[in-house]
Amino acid sequence: MSTASLQHSPAAERNRAPILEHLRALLPPTGTALEIASGTGQHVAHFAAALPGWAWQPTDLQPTHFGSITGWAAQAGADNVCPPLRLDVLHTAWPAEGPAFGTPFDLIYCANMLHIAPWACCTGLMQGAARHLAPGGRLVTYGPYLEDGVPTAPGNIAFDASLRAQDATWGIRRIEDVMGAAAQAGLQLAARHALPANNLLLVWTHAARQA
Questions:
Q1: What does the alpha-carbon distance between residue 39 and residue 67 come to, in Å, rounded to a whole number?
Q2: Which of 45, 57, 85, 89 is most buried by its number of CB atoms within 10 A?
Q3: CA angle, 159 as apex, 153 and 160 as ends, to 5°?
Q4: Environment class of 61 (CB within 10 Å of its CB; exposed 0-12, middle 13-18, buried 19+)
């Protein structure tokens, strides 16, 4: 399958390198990773090819993405990417179909989901991550956020308005609200990294089970 026939996100193409730089610094040489809302599959393919000691499990709510996820992994030569699974963060059972995950993950990664999903999905993500993270494991989220006391970039103000015009349940989330949802699940913010284009990479850990 040629890359021309795969789903493609210009944003994923741009941000995959800076995200990978932080993942390299954060992660040990080996581990297991679960990606939530894999979308086109560009991220998981890029990360898996660059981090061959890690086994990656991509997931998405929409099975229509599965062919693209598999295709990008094949293009990258990443044989450490498992077949994609359907996962709904609002379900208490992960994944949504088939056997539940029986082994915890060292990394759960979710990019650009919170602002294009109802707020309940943030709670679902945090609760599910708390259930499926290994001791010492990390949840990494990436995307735009609003922060109290930090001026919001004009681009993010316009982006937030456009999201809410599309769906009133969407919108860029306040990092303080996300922290509240995480705390209810037993997770805490361990690191905040500013990335290009007014995005943040946030690292979350179990509040009571530090590595």
A1: 10
A2: 45
A3: 90
A4: buried
The arrangement of strands across the sheet holding 133-143 comes to: 85-86, 54-60, 31-36, 105-111, 133-143, 199-206, 187-195
CATH superfamily of 3-206: Vaccinia Virus protein VP39 (3.40.50.150)
Q: How far apart are CA 96 and CA 73, in angstroms?
A: 22
Q: How far is CA 78 from CA 10, 34, 122, 133, in A?
A: 21, 15, 29, 23
Q: Which bin fits 197, alpha (ψ -120 to 50), beta or left (φ > 0)?
A: left
189, HSE (Cβ side, Cα atoms, 13 Å): 15
Model confidence pTM above 0.70: yes
Q: DSSP string of 60-73?
A: ES-GGGHHHHHHHH
> What is the residue extent of each domain of the chain?
3-206
* Crossing angle between the packed helical segments 42-50 and 66-76, to the nearest 10 degrees: 30
Nearest CA among 58, 53, 60, 45 for reference residue 12:
45
Q: With residue 75 as reference, give the H or E element that holds it.
A: helix 66-76
- Per residue in 157-209, pLDDT (tens digit) is 999 999 999 999 999 999 999 999 999 999 999 999 999 999 999 999 998 76
Q: What is the pLDDT of residues 96-139, one digit of tens each?
A: 999 999 999 999 999 999 999 999 999 999 999 999 999 999 99
Please tell me whether residue 139 adopts helix, strand or coil conformation: strand
